[in-house]
Amino acid sequence: MSGTGGEDDTVHSVDAHAGGDEDAPRRATFGRHARHVPGLAATLVRRGEPARLLVTGHADRDARRPVTTDTVFAWWSLTKIVTATLALRLAERGRLDLDAPARERVPELDLVAGPRAGRRPRARDRGGIARGAREPSARDLLGHGAGFVDAQRHVARWFCAPDAPFPGPRAFLAEQLHRHGPLRASPGARLHYSNLGYATLGELLADAGARDFRGLVREQVLDPLGMTSTGFEAARLAHGDGSRLACGYVRRFSRLGLAVRLLDRRGFLAARSGGLRRLRWRDLVFSPHGGLLGSIDDLARFLRLFVEGGQSNGVRVLGRASLDAMATLTLRDPRRRATPSGTGLGWFVDERPRVAGARGVLLLHGGRGPGFTTEMAVLPAHGLAVGVLGNTEFDARSTARTLLADALAGRL
Known about the structure:
By secondary structure, the protein is α+β, with helices and mostly antiparallel strands. It has helices spanning 24-31, 79-92, 138-142, 169-180, 195-209, 213-222, 234-237, 255-263, 296-303, 320-327, 396-408; strands at residues 2-3, 11-15, 39-46, 51-60, 65-66, 73-74, 249-251, 269-273, 276-279, 293-294, 311-312, 315-316, 331-332, 342-343, 348-350, 362-369, 372-379, 384-390. It folds into 2 domains: 2-80 and 219-408, DD-peptidase/beta-lactamase superfamily (Beta-lactamase, 3-Layer(aba) Sandwich); 95-211, no CATH class. It starts with a strand and ends with a helix.
């Protein structure tokens, strides 16, 4: 398959199941990554060159519907980099002060360093915030350094149950802040990956942009980049018949599969499909931490920002200073030889890329949730990026690193 767009966004794609000899080596190289995934899409974006789109497998195993470059996957936490891009764009335009106290725009934040009401202080609640510590800012929220210590399992409560009314994000945020607060570390002192922090950041950005978060993302990021196959509304992206949406699957006896079975109060589980369990789509209450769905074609458009100096297909979205801030290690993971090394503004930054032939830092961010696994990886020094979207659990980060190494070695 192949597709063409404007002069700068022409793409060349390879279907790993297609015939013909011209792309046989590339099909073989890509196909080995997809052996244990129902459907897989990837993109390779080089500075100054057309993007390559690579697809294989099935978006729907039972219907034998193949993955195409237009197939829509859940992006999960790749959304955080879109949220970070929005934050830097608003800051460039003078609508957001990254260093102002977040509570100025999100008064629901309870920044008092005390135990939750009606509970005895726990050891991790006491002494976590230094006396006289400053309040967290948007910059802290972007780098997972605001002091939240929420667990991944909490997100299971953030999906809408079937036929349940959709709660207002602001009221729901207040409830979650009460449930999972207080802050347990001084802002800027501790790296702890936080979905709650990004949910808070989204409401802060909505206030700064004077409109709802989803509309702001579309206005400031998706529409300028021509990302018409990406959004927060599964029904709109499906175009009515659902034929563009990939079906998500979990492995029946995997850790995630067992967790979904045990915690399934949102009606996720559907029919079995071999050793996999098909999932029904459920919308998230919060969008900023993981609510986007999109195609590999659109992911290529987004990744081009980070290899072309903040512009994609002739449209500038971010300036060089903002890109540098996103890619600069500002909060280090204290664990010895941790990988990635820490965070910038949004991206995880790895000072040891572990990619054959690579120099400089590697920027990383992945997404993992019911039915889908995703990854983005960027080598700024090489002007090279890859994105990976799959519809079950697999090691997407290793896949992304291998694709980068293949690209640097000329195999892709």
